[in-house]
Amino acid sequence: MSSNIGDILWQDLTVNNADDVAEFYQQVVGWQKKPVSMGEYDDHGMMVGDTMKAGVCHAKGSNAGMPPQWLMYVAVADLDNSIATAQRLGGELIVPERAMGKDRMAVIADPAGAVLALYQVASSDNTNA
Length: 129
What we know:
The protein is built from two helices and eight strands. The protein is α+β, with helices and mostly antiparallel strands. It has two domains: 1-10 and 62-129, 2,3-Dihydroxybiphenyl 1,2-Dioxygenase, domain 1 (Roll), CATH 3.10.180; 17-58, no CATH class. The protein is globular, with a radius of gyration of 15 Å.
């Protein structure tokens, strides 16, 4: 994945009733559901034609404890530095750093409580790092 620092890379929603919520958005927005294997269960890729636009995920496995709200994933140059800076400035680490293939991500809350996923693309792909 190629990205520029600060780009919004993705958005998803993690909820306890992902099957029902994916169906809701399929009918309300017009997205089509495509299963995305998480090993023991499937999350939902929300599609327009052949393009995945968003995800609706089950609140289990690596997504256990995620708040039930739309979550943006934003590219950062240095995940560890961004997490430390967020905490120093009154933010909170909600989901600790984890691997996403060769990339890394974590979820923070800002001082107001709004959440954001910080996403560090593997260095060879990061065009503004």
